[in-house]
Amino acid sequence: MKRLFFCFALFFALTNGAAAQRIEVVKKTPVRLPAVKEMPFRIPQVREITASNGVKAWLIEEKSTPLIAVSVLFNGGAASDPKRLQGLTPMAAALLGDGAGRYKSEQLNQILAEKAIDLDFSSGADYISAELTTLRQNRDEAFDFLRLALTKPRFDKRALKQVREQTLAAVKARKGNPNAAAYERFLKLVFKNHPYSRTMPSADGVKAVTRASLKRLVRRRFARDNMVVGVAGNISESELKALLEKTFSNLPEKAILPDIPDFTPDLSARTDVLTMDVPQSAAVFGHAGIPRGDPDYYAALLVDYTFGGGGFASRLFNEVREKNGLAYSVSTFMLPLKHSPLYIGTLASDNAKIAGAIDIVKAEWAKIAQSGQTAKELKDAKTYLTGSFPLSFTSSSGLASFLAALQYNGEGIDYLQNRNALMNAVSLSEARRVAARLLAPESLFFVVVGKPANL
Amino acid sequence: MILLLLALLLASCPVNAENLFKAESFTLNNGMKAIAIENHRAPAVTHMVWYKTGSIDDPLGKSGIAHVLEHLMFKGTPAVPDGEFSKIVARNGGNENAFTSRDYTAYYQNIARDRLELVMFLESDRMKNLRFSLQDFAPELEVVKEERLMRTENNPAALLAERRNRLLWGEHAYARPIIGFKQELAALTMKDAQDFYNTHYAPDNAILIVAGDITAAELKPLAEKYYGAVPPGRKARTKRVFTDSQPLKATLEMAHPLAKIQTVTRTYIVPSYLSEGKETAHAYAVLAEILGAADSGVLYKRLVDSQKASAVSVDYSGFALDKGTFSISAAVSPASTAEAVRAAIDRPVKIGEKALRQAKKRLVAGMEHLIDNPETTANVTGFAEILGLGIEELEKFPEKINAVSLDDVKAAYENMTAKSAVVTTVLTPEATP
Fold first, then answer.
1. Residue B24: in which H helix or E strand, if any?
2. Exposure pattern of B70-85 as b/e (b: 16+ CB <10 Å)?
């Protein structure tokens, strides 16, 4: 099953890339589209479940699916790793499903596969998370494997050795991949000595990771005051309550996490070039962004949609790709790191063309900072971001992660009910003010990896 | 847009079902097949149109044209001109994309249920009315060249795989990259795209799949109204047959400065679920699981436990109209050598009853995961249907996997290692000057 889902995950990762389109204002034949008869959209109800051990979870129950999905997010990711153990958190995530309690890796994998239980761990700069998906009838065992992985991971010598080798190989491989190399260099130059500059594994860090350091991470981060839980699928409130008690009672009450200072990047409008002998250059660009929870966050999402986040509908896609054929992919996104949110874009163009593509990005950056969106653009951004909301409710694992992320970001339980109204309430003048705040051409910093001409 | 990897990835994904998919199919008057798959958990649908054409239909010397046409499909028709297609979908909260593979091309939108009719109108419109203009074509060809740079030129493993496929498949269409050879791609013309469209895009060469908050009774009148109005007219596609009178065994080596890890990949041509020898396909699926599964796989143990390789993957790509492939790939450990890895792969494997039993259990478990999300169900159904396997065959998958015997697996292994065409590639890092 794991393999099957790995396949689908990749499938979707790949198919959700940019598509081939061209947007242009030319003479219009009136389009007679079928009329849309709007149907009322019932937003699923989120319930907060509190177990007797104090553990809380947000639940969306869905009886029509055979599955139950759980997402557990713990505070503290790669930025919380000791300086000399760069790579500790991603290695822990890779190892946590590899053997726990009395089950060695091989045995555990066989049982999980036979019972179609997916148990995966992943991590980022600020978090480490567990994702569990199981058939309803296997839920007791599935939750028990989650409990074992969180409280009694084995970190056997064999598994540790293999993950160390694989991580070292990945560190090396980044050096031959212009996109990865550009991203790594961007983070390094933007964050200088801040822990955020060390969130990708380093060879020395990976070699220094030991079983003891992995155990310490588990003891310190996997605690009840440091986690949020999202659950979706075919499970009732009382069933979940009982499982929350069994699963999380053995976790320590309090986490021990290092303090990570807030950081404001000090960037100027310049371009850094790292030479790599490739025909197509890769660029990562951006500057400080807007934190999640900021009152301007919704407006910023709407601005970003129009500017570069909205795929085929965005200005950057239109100008760089559709009108000029200068790139296959160009897009922007908000990276809401807790201690230093960023606003970032990526681009890849033929060495001979990248300078021209960068000029367009710079000009568009300045243009939207100055004049913001048009009324029509703002309206289109709203109808997309509100109209696509029902699509968030089609997959149990997607919903569980979504529910965990909402709690992690400090949203209220009524978020789903209010979200579209908040989005629709953003006025044009507000969006213009936020565009000027979000996009700062004077700080727009580019890292380019390749053999770019004229840079 | 999604290319080479797709077929390989999905081909290695096990699927099975037992009337699990609430699917109902019907055929329109013009020959187009339609399938409704019910899943009412959210007021949304996945709407897909799959065409029975892909890069295998690229005319000689014009590799890449099926994929370039896929890009052009977003450009416009007289009724919906100038990129309006995507704008309309986006304004209505829809996500959309398309993908071109060797054997098929598909277009899809995920959208709120009350917008289904809208996307059916749009998709059926571009099935017959696509407008071609040089003003659209020229920059789009540049975009696809950039796509090739990203996927192939900037990626030594992809470059080597391209050379490998030429050698392995010879004159067969599978020898040609979906994105197109560099020079052939650059020389494509708008007329090539137009010809391809006129030859292959028609309702009787396509399948409609709608999954989500929909019933067949609701879908039928809409399908008739929009797709039923498109005139048929294509001939059935010609079946390609791979003939390897003298199976080739070759090794390709490439040193490249962008390669940072040495990798050894061996690719065999074996029967697919559809080709000659298809009765052995399930045995190859089991064999791949026995050899490559993480932790327990025979080759995983042999290579990773002994620290000859840091990673191993074994894939059977059996979802193909013509023959499939079986590949074994290993990342050589710094302390080892490509020769040691090759020798370990060469050494015959012994397969026991226990390994067989466990592999089969892993393969058939958890079919229900495929019906949680309508988009997943639509994709799996699409693959099966477009290749001509049908949902029926998906439903039989667990049964057929369970019927594979130890002798079947041994015979598959014997046949593959002794008689099949095979190319081994070795990609080696080269110090940058």
1. strand B23-27
2. bbbbbbbbebbbbbbb
pLDDT for the residue A30: 55
A189 interfaces chain B, CB cutoff of 8 Å: no
Torsion of CA A292, A293, A295, A298, to 10 degrees: 50
Is-catalytic flag, B70?
A: yes
Give the model confidence (pLDDT) of A374-386 as tens digits.
999 999 999 999 9
DSSP letters for A53-83: TS-EEEEEE-TTSSEEEEEEEEE--GGGS-G
Asked if residue B412 lies in contact with residue B284, where contact means CB atoms within 8 angstroms, the answer is yes
Asked whether B29 and B74 are in contact (CB, 8 A), the reply is no
Would an 8 Å CB–CB cutoff place A261 in contact with chain B? no
Tell me the pTM: 0.92
Name the residue with tokens 């042999």.
B302
Q: Which fold has domain B249-429?
A: Cytochrome Bc1 Complex; Chain A, domain 1 (3.30.830)
Q: Which residue of B has its CA nearest to A451?
A: B154
- Catalytic residue (choose from B18, B38, B70, B353): B70
Residues of A in contact with B147 (CB under 8 A): 328
- Quote the tokens at residue B310: 């840091």
Do A388 and B93 lie within an 8 Å CB cutoff? yes
Residue A325: the pLDDT is: 94
pLDDT of A20 above 60: no
Query: Is there a contact between A343 and A286 (Cβ–Cβ < 8 Å)?
Result: yes
Q: Which residues of chain B have pLDDT under 70?
A: 1-18, 234-237, 244-245, 432-433
Q: What is the ipTM of this complex?
A: 0.91
Do the domains B4-226 and B249-429 sit in the same CATH topology, yes or no?
Answer: yes
Query: Could you tell me which chain A residue has the CA closest to the CA of B6?
Result: A11
The residues, any chain, with a CB within 8 Å of residue B349's CB and separated by 6 or more, are B291, B298, B299, B302, B413
- Domains plus CATH for chain A? 2-6+44-248 (3.30.830.10), 262-450 (3.30.830.10)
Closest CA in chain A for residue B116: A36
The pLDDT of residue B391 is: 87
Q: Is the pLDDT of residue A127 over 80?
A: yes
Domain residue ranges in chain B: 4-226, 249-429
What is the rounded average pLDDT for all residues in chain A? 92
Tokens of B268: 């065999």
CB contacts, 8 Å: B10 with chain A: 7, 11
Pairing of strands A445-450, B33-38: unpaired
Q: pLDDT tens-digit profile of A389-447? A: 999 999 999 999 999 999 999 999 999 999 999 999 999 999 999 999 999 999 999 99
Q: What is the β-pairing status of strands B44-51 and B206-212?
A: antiparallel
Calculate the alpha carbon distances from B132 to A306, B63, B399 in Å. 28, 19, 48
Question: What DSSP character marks residue B303?
Answer: I
What residues pair up with B47 in beta bridges, in sequence order? B109, B210
A311 touches chain B (CB under 8 A): yes
* Fold category of B4-226 in CATH: Cytochrome Bc1 Complex; Chain A, domain 1 (3.30.830)
Q: What is the pLDDT of residues A304-334, one digit of tens each?
A: 999 999 988 899 999 999 999 999 999 999 9
Contact between chains at A33 and B118 (C-beta distance less than 8 A): yes
* Model pLDDT, residue A27: 44
Chain B residue numbers with beta carbons less than 8 Å from the beta carbon of A137 are none
> In what order do the strands lie in the sheet containing B249-256?
B249-256, B422-429, B263-270, B324-332, B309-317
